[in-house]
Design goal:
By secondary structure, the chain is mostly helical. It has helices at residues 9-28, 35-46, 52-59, 63-75, 97-118, 123-140; strands at residues 50-51, 79-83, 91-95. Helix 2 (35-46) crosses helix 5 and helix 3 (52-59) packs across helix 4. The two termini are 33 Å apart.
Length: 158
């Protein structure tokens, strides 16, 4: 079964994600964090106490890269490492007050980017886009739980 336009689906999703990421980086650069650091900080604020290994898995980067990223963020006062009480070899990552305070600004920047991305779409079209992408993610996730179902409220793009 061939549906009209589906041969471009992967390219469109990739390009949309790339352009949104670029816009977010541009708008969020005032905080002095790279895109990878933003992503890590958001994960740590939302799910305090993740292990470095789990962060590597969620961010889809190598554990050594996560370790270096955390080193830089710890030096900047964004996160702190704590040893797991059950296994001293395991480090859990927690946000600092600085991260928690900045998290609100991150959400504001993300909201602006989402609004720019969805400009020109009716509320119903926005719902359809989000529902369609959520279905694609669910169809391909093979039980992964790293993506949560988005909640769309009237007049909201997030």
């Amino acid at each position: 079964m061939k549906l009209e336009g589906t041969e471009r689906l992967g390219f469109l999703i990739h390009d949309a994600a790339r352009l949104m990421r670029r816009r977010f980086e541009s708008m969020g650069s005032a905080y002095g964090l790279s895109a990878a650091q933003w992503r890590l900080m958001v994960r740590v604020v939302k799910e305090e106490g993740l292990t470095q290994a789990r962060l590597a898995e969620l961010l889809e980067i190598e554990p050594i890269s996560v370790s270096r990223l955390i080193d830089r963020m710890q030096e900047g006062g964004w996160v702190e490492r704590r040893q797991d009480a059950a296994d001293r070899r395991v480090h859990m990552i927690f946000p600092t007050a600085k991260s928690r305070e900045t998290f609100g600004a991150i959400k504001g920047v993300a909201g602006e980017v989402f609004e720019q991305a969805l400009a020109g779409l009716t509320p119903q079209e926005r719902q359809t886009v989000i529902h369609g992408l959520s279905t694609i993610v669910n169809n391909l996730s093979d039980g992964e739980t790293s993506c949560r179902q988005p909640v769309i409220s009237k007049g909201s793009a997030t």
